Amino acid sequence: MQNVSEFNTLDPIDVNDKRVINGKADINQLAPFKYPWAWEYFLKANNNHWTPLEINMSGDVLDYKYKLSPAEIHMFENVLAYLTTADILAMRNIGLAVMEKMSAPELQIYQARQVYEESLHTWTYQHCIESLNLDQREIYNRYRTVPEIFGKIKISNQRLNKILRSDLDLSKQENVQDFILSYGFFATIFEGAWFYNGFTPIFALQRRGLMKGTGEQFQYIMRDETLHANFGIKVLRQLMSEENFAPKQEYWDEMFEECHAAEKAYANYILREPILGYNAEIHLQQYEYIVNRRAKQIGLTKVPYPNAVNAVPWLDEQTNLRKEKNFFETRVVEYKSNSSLDWEDEE
Amino acid sequence: MQNVSEFNTLDPIDVNDKRVINGKADINQLAPFKYPWAWEYFLKANNNHWTPLEINMSGDVLDYKYKLSPAEIHMFENVLAYLTTADILAMRNIGLAVMEKMSAPELQIYQARQVYEESLHTWTYQHCIESLNLDQREIYNRYRTVPEIFGKIKISNQRLNKILRSDLDLSKQENVQDFILSYGFFATIFEGAWFYNGFTPIFALQRRGLMKGTGEQFQYIMRDETLHANFGIKVLRQLMSEENFAPKQEYWDEMFEECHAAEKAYANYILREPILGYNAEIHLQQYEYIVNRRAKQIGLTKVPYPNAVNAVPWLDEQTNLRKEKNFFETRVVEYKSNSSLDWEDEE
């Protein structure tokens, strides 16, 4: 924590004193930018602005009541329950564990938007719960009553708790390693795979014309989360380059293994019975395929699942919001007239 | 920091376990709400959504170059310089010092929006600096070269630093007192007076048809800040009631005295020469009038400036955005068609 207690006349900051962690530049001065791409992410995220109230949920109420099978309801409710807890965790990760340690204001300003977007997502789940008249107390508490949901939350909490302390000494390499692994976990697995791939079961319903409102909500969330994951990975690479340090492959492998086991248990629970066109095996294949992409993005040469294939080839097309809108003929919501509703996941 | 390390089947949360600080309820469960008004603030803030790109700055470029007097330029640049630093501090206060300690998710969700709004304000100043082609390095650094700006920042940093530690023990009454005084300072003085009243010199230009773009930007910021101040004061009263503790009047008086001296020095510097229709004396009178309002709002029976009068009676009318829009015939920007652009400061 920089403390400006006495008045001294000081020169403007040197941009080279800015660093992802262990920065030496005055934390109160936005410009000059060292990371202009972070500012671009901020502008892009603002351009993507949306709120859950814009999306019509009336069809979902009828679908939920009359059209979903028991297996589909089981899947739907548990995905929603996982997400309610997961997005509050995502907010806490960036807001409480990360933002203070990355003191360059152009990084913090995107993170401020990111924290807010997690809160928009929380609002979205609350809006879905209210629209469908679900028992909110029971849904929010489910992560404490279903071990297969808890497994993923437990891993996340452990990673978060390792770096949450505001006085974590980042001049020590073991702490830098913990920070990289925790931040890397949230960017690649938590946001980049568990969120990304986590919406797919709902998109499988949406694809069949069911729960289209929820599906559309989740497409907006997925667009945000894709940006979060890509921003996080860009920051991670910058951080490892500045610190001239990268954790050994075995630490990443441990993480992948632990997360895979949790995801497998989760998939087998939410899809204990398959639904039309989607099952636990497809879900896990897709998870592996996405995690390989993230592993490559953070610079690993060895991917964890060399045999993984794209098990849901329809996903990329469906998650392109513009095509989706035309397909379902719902209204297009754009905050600014020049904004584009499609988005890309950087390879 | 709550740590969920082992799986236990637990009942849904008891709403009475939620507290502003020292809460005992699971921090990952949004509902049921204990503070439904916080949720309403969040919805209202989202309804107020805007970005600086919506406002035309072209007139300001010409005004700045050809119409402002040297005294007006001096005032304008220094107000802007103070604000650039102040809004990053505001972001750090809520994001880093407060949010973790107020663990009820419905409070955190509004704070997530609040942190984001501070980043929108930072964007706004950057947008003004770029539009007017000012020397951004010099402007951002000015709080370190002008003692009269630094005086306000120094007080704010001291308050912030007292409560920034994430392991601050809030079971101890002296820490609770520091927390109340710091949070109270940011809500009442920093956001409720220094921001609120801090825009007035710019509005004095806007009133004469000068720097209308900047004036309009600052009206949006002022609307946000008024909500922040009122939310903060509501939280503060709730907190003091739950903890059954309020700092003695003398602590508030000390704060008022210290802040008044800093504001007086600042006013005398930015308005070392009066501008048409506005001067340092008017500025300070208005400051006192606003601080009295804040003192009453937090429940103090003795106001610090019994003789203060409303020195800028035109302000309330001008800061009503709708009237302003009609007056200047600029376009009305509303995110949602049913949103209202006017806003009230709760008495």
Description:
- Two copies of one chain form a homodimer.
- Chain A is built from 13 helices and no strands.
- The first copy, chain A, is an all-alpha fold and 347 residues long.
- Mean pLDDT of chain A is 90; it is low at 323-344.
- At the A-B interface, helix 3, helix 4, helix 5 and helix 6 of A face helix 3, helix 4, helix 5 and helix 6 of B.
Strand content of chain A: under 5%
Shape summary of chain A: globular
Give the biggest beta sheet of chain A: none
Low-confidence stretches of chain A: 323-344
Helix content of chain A: 55-70%
Brief digest:
2 copies of one chain form a homodimer. Chain A has 347 residues and is mainly alpha-helical. The first copy, chain A, has 13 helices and no strands.
Give the arrangement of secondary structure elements.
2 copies of one chain form a homodimer.
Chain A: H1 36-47, H2 58-67, H3 70-98, H4 105-131, H5 136-141, H6 147-163, H7 173-195, H8 200-207, H9 212-243, H10 249-270, H11 280-297, H12 314-318, H13 321-328
Core attributes:
homodimer; mainly alpha; 0% strand
